[in-house]
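Aim 2 progress update. The chain analyzed this quarter is reproduced below.
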Amino acid sequence: MSAAGNAQPGLPARKAALQILSDVLRKKRPLDAAIADALSKSNLAPRDAGFARLIAATSLRRFGQLEALIRVFVPKAPQPHKAGPTLEILIAGACELLFLNVAPHAAVDAANRLAQTDSKSVHFKALINAVLRRVTREGAAVIASQDEAVLNTPDWLWPRWVEHYGQETARAIATAHLQIPPLDLMLKAENNPSTDIEGMMSLAPGRLRLTQAGRIEELSGYNEGEWWIQDFAATLPVRLFGDVAGKRVIDLCAAPGGKSAQLAAQGAFVTAVDVAFERLATVRENLQRLNLSAELVTGDARDWRPTEPAPFVLLDAPCMATGTIRRHPDLPWLKSAADLQITETLQAELLDAAAEMTAPSGTLVYAVCSLEPEEGEQQVDAFLRRNADFARNPVTATEVFDPAFVSAKGDLTTLPCFWAEKGGMDGFYAARLIRHSSRPSA
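Predicted structure tokens:
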């Protein structure tokens, strides 16, 4: 790694990682935003930037374990207002030693240097040095004795998963979250034989997976607009519409736009609606690269209405996103059970609005990247009790490639532990709802 003008190789990367961790853990900033901010200020070489991301993401992915480990050696952690980023320095240092296989002398020395650069943590330099030396000698044994699935899942989530999925599946989900996820690509043309990327795996027609991707812009077919990034599970809800060629589809809460691209690539006339103008700008850029088109509308789906109802409506609703923890390891530590009540209310309002936009005999697909039943099956059950003119249209195994993805009620349900031998997938829920041609009589 380049020293970037610093006497200690790798220190600028570690300073960036420390800033990222502090932003996430102290300021509750999303990891992606914290990374973008820290790297924009640090001017790191690509290799150092990658190292900074790796330290921060792995520290968060294993945060429960690392925090428990530190408590073994420091039962009473120093207060942040006195110690500054001391805890983050310890967490990152232990992460390097135990999960990134960094040489002990390099990791401990770097931690000491990081402490030296902060006006508060400098007073805890001796503690940092002593603890990380003990971690070097004793840490592996402590980690081996830990229950990693439970420790790395916050208390607000673990009991919920055990209750809903059972102990075995809850453990499988939590274990899947500890793995660095692969990169999934969705092809613009599902049967395109020309896309040839080294190391790719075909998951299903038009769906490729890479475990070692490198720079996205340098992959074959990027500049030609042959594919976009989209987790395999996230591509499945669009399949529930069937043939949309030449048909009008309203995509609500459309950003970042993967599903809009899927629909447009299949020949649909897409109206993509999102409340955030800047997120729609990203959708526009992606569609331009892919040479696809859609009508983009900035607006709150609870208030916006089309000139006439559409035969197909997709609502990919805002949610707790607990199905995406593999890709967002900060999420469990940023959210709480209280946030669930807010998203439940919003989803119900959006679902009722989406229902108004669905034409008679039309199809409404509701989707969330959540593992929480209140946001999935229970949300749909409540909607159907409120809206007698809608009914479930059960999903078939053929439509979603695997019978394991179909719930007892006929909804799409994927879990991060599914297809573990292929690298897993995001947790996703979707229900297909059909509007009657006329409202049933009471």
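The chain has a mean pLDDT of 93. The two ends are 71 Å apart (CA to CA). These observations will guide the mutagenesis experiments scheduled for the next reporting period.
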